[in-house]
């Protein structure tokens, strides 16, 4: 984490914010190309941030209730968002609801605005997963015997020489995760699921580049994002992540095993999201323009 006086800023939050900032420039660029009202887009930004934070925290708490409401838990810490803990799916849901409400109030095409917000999501995924890696103990993978296994340095190991210590702090690995298998500490290589998450974000960027060129039909880019984020995360990340299984279909982990487990709660949630996304994309005509955006553009003399 980054220590600024009494304030401890976690890498996760800092790098997500950086990703959102970079993604916002792409969002504004696409909004202008599509004739959307960029003033309205900027006006809703604060509400989107608030809704995203609330959604991310709420879903995280609901899916990890024992830490807050179980034995020894502190219910009030559920509101301590600065301590870390958030769900990307929850953040997406919060933003979706905020855009829906805002669009209803100002008579905007909700799908067109959701389309141009997707770059923020893709770059936020990349920043978040790099931040998870910097925090050390976030989103760890299962123990694996595969060659891709990553062995975390011992906690307290110094970082990358003088330059690294200046940038990252004295002990980047102070929070190196303790891997647990069947309730017992395990020592050995693990899947670097934070890195897998970064790869997912990069793939999403290429998908969005294609989708923006492919169609201006409202909702096309948004549902492509939801579809492929759900598929990629379920397959490339959650399969190897050290999460409890909500439905134990298959589990094999250890230094002589692949380090695979299905199905986690995230994978179960992704199934209806994938089905809804496919249905919505099948009902869309990708060659249809957004008539409301065209009229809006003409009204502004563009």
UniProtKB/TrEMBL annotation:
The chain crosses the membrane at residues 12-29, 41-60, 80-101, 113-131, 195-212, 219-236, 260-282. Its EC number is 2.5.1.145. One of its GO terms (biological process) is lipoprotein biosynthetic process. Pathway: Protein modification; lipoprotein biosynthesis (diacylglyceryl transfer). It is a multi-pass membrane protein. Signal peptide: none annotated. InterPro entries: Lgt (IPR001640). One of its GO terms (molecular function) is phosphatidylglycerol-prolipoprotein diacylglyceryl transferase activity. Its main location: membrane. Keywords: Cell membrane, Lipoprotein, Membrane, Transferase, Transmembrane, Transmembrane helix. A 1,2-diacyl-sn-glycero-3-phospho-(1'-sn-glycerol) binds at residue 129. It is found in: Cell membrane. Catalyzes the transfer of the diacylglyceryl group from phosphatidylglycerol to the sulfhydryl group of the N-terminal cysteine of a prolipoprotein, the first step in the formation of mature lipoproteins. This is Phosphatidylglycerol--prolipoprotein diacylglyceryl transferase. The gene is lgt.
């Amino acid at each position: 984490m980054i220590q600024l006086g009494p304030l401890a800023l976690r890498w996760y939050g800092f790098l997500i914010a950086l990703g959102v900032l970079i993604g916002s420039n792409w969002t504004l660029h696409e909004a202008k190309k599509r004739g959307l009202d960029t003033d309205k887009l900027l006006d809703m930004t604060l509400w989107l941030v608030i809704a995203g934070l609330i959604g991310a925290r709420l879903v995280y708490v609901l899916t990890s209730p024992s830490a807050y409401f179980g034995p020894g838990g502190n219910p009030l810490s559920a509101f301590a968002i600065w301590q870390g803990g958030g769900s990307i799916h929850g953040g997406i849901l919060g933003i979706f609801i905020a855009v829906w409400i805002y669009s209803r109030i100002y008579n905007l095409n909700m799908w067109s605005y959701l389309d141009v917000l997707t770059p923020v999501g893709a770059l936020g995924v990349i920043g978040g997963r790099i931040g998870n890696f910097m925090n050390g103990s976030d989103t760890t993978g299962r123990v694996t015997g595969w060659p891709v296994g990553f062995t975390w340095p011992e906690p307290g190991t110094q970082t990358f020489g003088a330059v690294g210590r200046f940038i990252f702090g004295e002990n980047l690995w102070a929070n190196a995760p303790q891997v647990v298998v069947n309730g017992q500490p395990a020592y050995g290589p693990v899947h670097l699921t934070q890195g897998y998450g970064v790869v997912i974000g990069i793939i999403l960027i290429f998908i969005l580049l294609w989708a923006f060129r492919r169609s201006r039909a409202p909702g096309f880019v948004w549902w492509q994002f939801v579809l492929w984020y759900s598929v990629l995360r379920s397959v490339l990340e959650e399969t190897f992540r050290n999460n409890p299984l909500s439905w134990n279909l298959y589990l094999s982990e250890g230094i002589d095993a692949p380090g695979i487990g299905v199905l986690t709660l995230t994978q179960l949630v992704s199934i209806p999201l994938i089905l809804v996304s496919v249905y919505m994309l099948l009902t869309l005509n990708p060659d249809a323009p957004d008539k409301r955006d065209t009229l809006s553009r003409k009204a502004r003399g563009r």
